[in-house]
Amino acid sequence: MASGRPRTTYIREQLVALDSGRRLVFGALCCERLLPNYISFQRNSGWGDFAAVRKALDCVWAHVYGNAQQAAEIVDASSVCELAAPSSDDFTSIYVTAAQDACFAVCSLLDYVLENDIDKIVQAATYATDSVDLFVQETDGVEPGDPELEAKILRHPLMQKELERQDSDLEAIRSAQAMSRDFIGERKAINGYGEIGNLSHPMINTAAKYQFNAHHIAVDTDGSAVVIGFADNEFSPSRFVLVQKSMKVDERDRAMGFDKVHIQIEDQSRSGYGGIVEVWAGHDRLTVLLDQAARAALKIDGDIEISVDPRHPVLGDAVLELKKLCEEDGIPFLD
């Protein structure tokens, strides 16, 4: 980045050279780093509507992928997302401002979809750096009146990491032949979104997710059990997830916990019953949050994130059956 110019001026200059779709991808990647901050706020405060914020950002991704929604639907998604923004007067959580920034950044992108105003994308990127700015002030004890305030925040590893991510995304987006699903999936993975988004310290090795692109999806409901499978390859998978539940259980099964959803990755030695905390079904991904016992049973350090093609012919059935299983076990399912 050239020095001596405001960050917003630099970002705007870079975006002017991109087409509308590429601009939107850049803004959406910024927002993906902000959404985990909202989750941290919701967990910390006990208030929030992450599903609304997630759905709003998924509207943006749908537009990127050529599945544009009607203007009225976009306006409605933006309104619901804005209502999910917490008031700083009502909460003391350290993440309250970051949660606001997440909501407002997503709303800015929806405004761009409707208005094609490039400054809305610049605004979304600015919300990402603003979140880091205030977080650093509050956690590192930087005094507001410190004459070195701006310089200290700029040098902070969190701010440097966010700026590096934005610059790296811009370069990759500018160089890519097309904004394909594979390219976008790679950019999301490279960013390495942590549990608290761009507020996670870059020097800390945060828990890695078990991630893959599910090119093959299968559902089997034979009456005795429901089996849902996601794999990176139909015939020779290197990564896969099987979710299943028996429909015929007795008291002994219940006493042993075998009446719960069973989850397996790769081989039978990496499996277990229960342990699913929450499931998110987004436009192009499924995220399965696990407790520590389930992570240990599956021999992974983080949650499961499966990238999916919304056009896959079996995806709708798979999501529907997965939602039913979650409802039966009392597992929150956000779609």
What does this protein structure show overall?
The protein is globular and about 70 Å long. The chain has 335 residues and is α+β, with helices and mostly antiparallel strands. Strand 5 and strand 6 form a beta hairpin. The strands form two sheets. A five-stranded mixed β-sheet has the order 1-9-8-7-10. It has a five-stranded antiparallel β-sheet with strand order 2-3-4-5-6, covered by helices on one side. The protein has two domains: 197 residues, YP_001051499.1 fold like, CATH 1.20.1590.10; 124 residues, no CATH class. It is 51% helix and 15% strand.
Strands in their spatial order, largest beta sheet? 1-9-8-7-10
Following the backbone from N to C, one meets helices and strands in this order, namely HHHHHHHHHEEEEHEEEEHEHE
> Strand share of the residues?
5-15%
Uncertain segments are 201-207
Protein name: DUF416 family protein
InterPro entries: DUF416 (IPR007338), Imm10 (IPR028962), YP001051499.1-like_dom_sf (IPR023381)
Task: Output the keywords.
single chain; 335 residues; alpha+beta; YP_001051499.1 fold like; 2 domains; five-stranded mixed beta sheet; five-stranded antiparallel beta sheet; 10 strands; 15% strand; Imm10
Could you write a compact summary of the structure shown?
With 335 residues, the chain is an alpha+beta fold. The chain has helices at residues 7-16, 20-45, 50-64, 71-83, 96-115, 118-139, 149-155, 157-175, 181-191, 251-256, 292-298, 315-329; strands at 210-213, 216-221, 225-231, 240-246, 262-265, 271-273, 276-281, 285-290, 304-307, 333-334.
